[in-house]
Amino acid sequence: MAVRYQIDGATSAAISASVEAGIRAGALEPGELLPAVRALAAALAVSPATVARAYQELRQRGLVVTAGRHGTRVRLCPPVAARRVALRPTPAPGSRDLSQGHPDLRLLPPLGPHLAALATEVGPPVGYASTAVLPALAEAARERLTADGVPAEEVIVTGGALDGIERLLAAHLRPGDAVAVEDPGWANLLDLVAAAGLRPVGVPVDEDGPTVTGVRDALALGARALVVTSRAQNPTGAAVSAGRAAALRELLTGRDVLLVEDDHAAELARVPLHPLAGATSTWAFVRSVSKPLGPDLRLAVLTGDEATVARVAGRARVGAGWVSTVLQRLVLSLWRDPATAALVRRAGQEYDRRRDALLAALADRGLTGYARTGINVWLPVPDETVAVTALRDAGWSVAPGALFRIGAGPAVRVTVSTLDDAEVGPLADAIAAAVRPTGPAGFTA
Question: In what order do the strands lie in the sheet with 411-415?
Fold first, then answer.
């Protein structure tokens, strides 16, 4: 496959810099195939070893990914700002975009009344020496976590779930270390692991969460950390069941591994939480407020063992310092408001209804989708490029499974958070026309 952008350079550093420049300029797009090592070496009159070193550096920095005989490609979300980036196929004019994975803004609680109240309640300006966590917020978070069975003696806040996970991995791991991640799993986490120079080890997922066999295999391959989504797993909607939690606890007990749990959906996921917290001596539990309260509220609470929490808090002090106390007060105000709690419950019920409606419509057409919880439906397909293109031509934009998977089979992810009743039938018809039933066991077709 010819590459439109001409890579140049006489050294490995110059070649990798040229590739990065192409990504920044948008000339090398996400997913684009780079020249084979020997072909580029011949074109640049350098040794294959020089090109191989350049590609290795790009892989270590998370800019490219190599898939054996399938060659080296630009990552779907490379960690470098580009002037023109297209992670997903651009929706056609007038098409319905169900690819983004965002909550329905119409179901979020209003912030205006709480901001107005804070304007009169907030005290003197906060200085740099102020505490990183408001005591009242920490206590409220502690109560909420404890009620869900999560031990929460130490509580800090981070700038969202991904920020917390990034700090946890940086505090415990070094470039080259292996991290067990769900496969398929959260695209942003996969990109973060790559950008940190860590080595992802995929763990298969079924409706009850990461499989015990998959976690055992990942540990045998040297994984030093395991990241688990508690419920509303993105993209499959899996939720860790009581039985799966018990089996994973038994497997993890006594292991020298960092256990990170991500409960990003929190109250929106209307299934019980079955935490793994404390199964290992080194652990952390992260809960974001973005899905139930709004994406603009970049805040997550984090608890864990004393040493882990201290590492994350200490690293924050020499970096960002703290999460805005104004933001913390806003979240606390929302938590304390019974009307907000009622709105979040209603949103969770509505997401369940929309998700179940699409699953039922797909089943009526002979298709098996997956989504126990959350706002997405995961649908295995024979060829996701064909499926995504056909749906786009029919006026529907969905996310290709390649964004979320390492070794799992092809699929598409459909976000149902904004799906209206009248759209369910036509969407299911379009999906049925674009794919044919695969009948997989689990999510690894």
Answer: 376-380, 411-415, 399-400
